[in-house]
Design goal:
Elements lengths: L11 H18 L3 H7 L4 H9 L18 H12 L8 H14 L2 H12 L5 E4 L15 E5 L2 E11 L7 E7 L9 E7 L6 E6 L11 E11 L11 H7 L1 H29 L1 E2 L2 E2 L4 H30 L4 H25 L10 H9 L9 H10 L2
Parallel strand pairs: 1-4
Antiparallel strand pairs: 2-3, 3-7, 4-5, 6-7, 8-9
């Protein structure tokens, strides 16, 4: 059966918003996806088009150039891309960067950068991971030393989503190497004509081939002191930790939508594909597997929707958001594996959307905090 869900957090206005987003994604993103996967990025024009139509920073206040909506509006954009297997334009990371600025930036920083992000003129990225530091952010070695009215930034980052196209990068660095987490800060780097800044190669990933994940290098980059996020040194670790519920729920939302989209594609396939003189859907194994998948998806929808309601109410805690990320990403991988199996050999072909979604799903258990880190966070709250 097709899965039809009326989300607890939706209403008539949001349904109209979803229709607009869906048309944009289907007509302006999907046709160019194959070419974007070949070159490794979607290009600036798509970002600018999304911004011109008001689809970026939809949950940022209008005073800063955003759409004036809330988390639901961002979730709709992420859902409509995820259910079609479109991972090239990471609007979720862009939104996360915008929320760091909104929640922690000075008034000048908000006015300076958020309107340009909303217009798609600046693509946002956040540079945390380094070749020698992943989940343990206290192990980062990128450093920034104060020199008059500037910071001088040295270091390298890797696995940076939106890195190739980024016009604005939040760089997690040490401003006081002797203070551990208390010595960590975030510097905002505008990349255009930035001396000492270099984008490395677009990384060759298992999945998400249309997404520009890159290495970034900072060799004596001079960053104005006014670009220190929030204006105070040593706040970086706190800033990173305080936005985790928003970030991790986005990953759960994406996981849920991807499962639903892959299920719909697979249901159509097994009804059409013939085996042993009858549709695959007529075989008991197929029916049972679809029943299992549909049940997991229905349970996930109830949990994710409850988390969205809690976020909107300001009551979503880090442990519950970590559950959404853990359950969503782990279940997404299992469900995509089960669904791909029903496609037979076709499911192993890159031209089949379920194959691309299967490959894309694997990183969901890694970025935003690995599943192991999620278990640690959850267990501490028990």
């Amino acid at each position: 059966m097709p899965l039809q869900f009326q989300r607890s957090w939706s209403d008539a206005d949001l349904d109209a918003w979803r229709d607009s987003v869906s048309r944009f994604v289907a007509h302006e993103m999907e046709p160019g996806d194959a070419e974007a996967r070949k070159r490794g990025h979607v290009g600036h024009a798509l970002w600018q088009r999304a911004g011109a139509l008001g689809f970026l920073c939809a949950d940022i206040p209008q005073a800063y150039g955003g759409g004036g909506g809330d988390f639901r509006h961002q979730a709709v954009l992420d859902e409509e891309m995820a259910r079609r297997g479109l991972s090239g334009m990471s609007a979720s990371v862009h939104a996360i960067v915008a929320h760091y600025l909104l929640n922690h930036g000075t008034e000048d920083q908000k006015q300076r950068w958020l309107p340009r992000m909303a217009r798609g003129e600046l693509v946002g990225a956040i540079a945390m991971t380094e070749p020698g530091a992943g989940s343990d952010l206290q192990g980062i070695r990128t450093r920034a030393e104060r020199d008059g009215d500037h910071y001088v930034l040295h270091g390298s980052k890797t696995y940076i989503t939106n890195g190739f196209l980024a016009g604005l990068v939040l760089v997690v660095c040490k401003t006081d190497a002797g203070q551990g987490a208390k010595g960590m800060s975030i510097l905002v780097v505008e990349t255009q004509d930035c001396a000492g800044f270099q984008v490395g190669r677009i990384l060759d990933k298992l999945g998400m081939h249309a997404q520009d994940t890159s290495e970034l290098f900072f060799d004596g980059v001079r960053v104005p002191a006014g670009h220190l996020l929030g204006g105070r040194e040593g706040q970086g670790f706190y800033q990173l930790m305080s936005d985790l519920p928003y970030e991790r729920l986005i990953i759960g939302v994406v996981a849920q939508a991807a499962m639903e989209g892959a299920y719909e594609d697979t249901l159509a396939w097994v009804r059409e594909r013939q085996a042993f003189g009858q549709p695959l859907a007529a075989l008991q194994n197929t029916r049972f597997k679809l029943a299992e998948v549909a049940t997991q998806i229905a349970a996930g929808r109830a949990f994710i929707d409850r988390c969205v309601d809690q976020l909107l109410a300001g009551t979503l805690d880090t442990a519950t958001a970590s559950m959404a990320k853990l359950w969503g990403s782990e279940t997404q991988c299992r469900v995509l594996d089960d669904l791909l199996q029903l496609w037979g050999g076709a499911g192993y072909m890159q031209e089949t959307r379920v194959a691309r979604m299967y490959a894309d799903a694997r990183v969901q258990r890694i970025y935003g905090g690995t599943s192991e880190i999620m278990k640690e966070v959850i267990s501490r709250a028990l």
